[in-house]
Amino acid sequence: MKGTSKRCVRIPFPSDLPALPPLPRKNFLVVAHRARSDARFPLDDLCGASGRWDGLVRCITATLLISHGIRKDSAVHLVLNGPGDPPRTITVLGGEVKLLNPDERSTASLMRKALERPPPAMPSVLWAGHGIYVSRLGLGDILGSWNTATVLLDEKGLDASSEPAVLLPLDGTAPSLYILSDDQDLLPEESDLLRAHGVRPVSLTGTVLHSYQAITVCHFLLDRAGRAP
Ligand SMILES: C[S@@+](CC[C@H](N)C(=O)[O-])C[C@H]1O[C@@H](n2cnc3c(N)ncnc32)[C@H](O)[C@@H]1O
After folding, report:
1. C-alpha R_g of the chain
2. Of 17, 107, 198, 205, which one has the fewest beta carbons inside 10 Å?
3. Minimal CA–CA distance to 221: which of 184, 176, 186, 156?
4. Do residues 205 and 157 lie in contact, with contact meaning Cβ atoms separated by under 8 Å?
């Protein structure tokens, strides 16, 4: 129409934002000890030269994908302490993410793209695509600043299989945060940090699982309990 101009507001990619968007109800955080924290990893060798990015990619799909859909009430946070440029945390929000497929290679490629540009200094975060954010947060920053009901998923913890209520630790007003380690045990200083923040260990089964399997079992117990945390 003459005299009016159509204004299209677009967020340039990639771009810095002042903070992460609000967290959804269910959050899974994986502490990664050796996965590369920059974009310099080969998609053809996710379990070798990439530092076990294969396991992290499975954590993303276990957290967010269901058959023909996405768990919009969930997010996954990968705290990358491996070589490259640590710490960096990639957050993927189920309510916003697009182009997430079950195959490992395409998800790894999305993550690698997100890591191409270093994130800004805290508290800003890099918007690296729909639902994908990269920050400088480390585990201690997260424990010190996020208002979440937090438990550590740990095979030696309090048994949740018969009592799922231990997975729903507070009154349900704060988002829940489930912390896992990658294929290695937590470092002593990470365990100390969790203890200092009063985070209790909770076990899902008597069997030691891969992190992505533990996420699936946790979802199962929460789904079965019939109430979102
Ligand atoms: C492969 S395990 C870590 C190494 C493991 N401690 C081992 O001895 O092989 C990966 C992570 O998944 C989670 N996990 C595995 N089994 C679990 C269980 N039965 N209950 C709760 N969390 C579990 C924990 O967060 C654990 O650190």
Report:
1. 18
2. 198
3. 176
4. no
| Domain ranges within the chain, ordered by starting residue | 17-225
CB 77 within 8 A of CB 89: yes
Residues 182 and 56 sit within 8 Å (Cβ to Cβ)? yes
Residue 126 Cα, ligand 1 centroid: separation in angstroms? 30
Domain 17-225 has CATH 3.40.1280.10: yes
Q: Work out which ligand 1 atom sits closest to the CA atom of 208.
A: 16
φ, ψ of residue 45 in degrees (nearest 5): -140, 60
State in Å: Cα 155 to ligand 1 middle.
5
pLDDT tens for the chain, 229 residues long, are: 444 455 655 555 678 999 999 999 999 999 999 999 999 999 999 999 999 999 999 999 999 999 999 999 999 999 999 999 999 999 999 999 998 999 999 999 999 999 999 999 998 999 999 999 999 999 999 999 999 999 999 999 999 877 777 787 555 678 999 999 999 999 999 999 999 999 999 999 989 999 999 999 999 988 887 754 4
- Beta-bridged to residue 134, according to DSSP, are 90, 126
Residues 6+ apart with CB under 8 A from 96: 21, 130, 131
Q: Is the CB of 185 under 6 A from ligand 1?
A: yes
Amino acid at 85: D
Report the SS3 class of residue 19.
Answer: coil
0.90 exceeded by the pTM? yes
User: What is the whole-number distance in angstroms between the Cα of residue 86 and the centre of ligand 1?
Assistant: 23
Atom of ligand 1 minimally distant from the CA of 207: 19
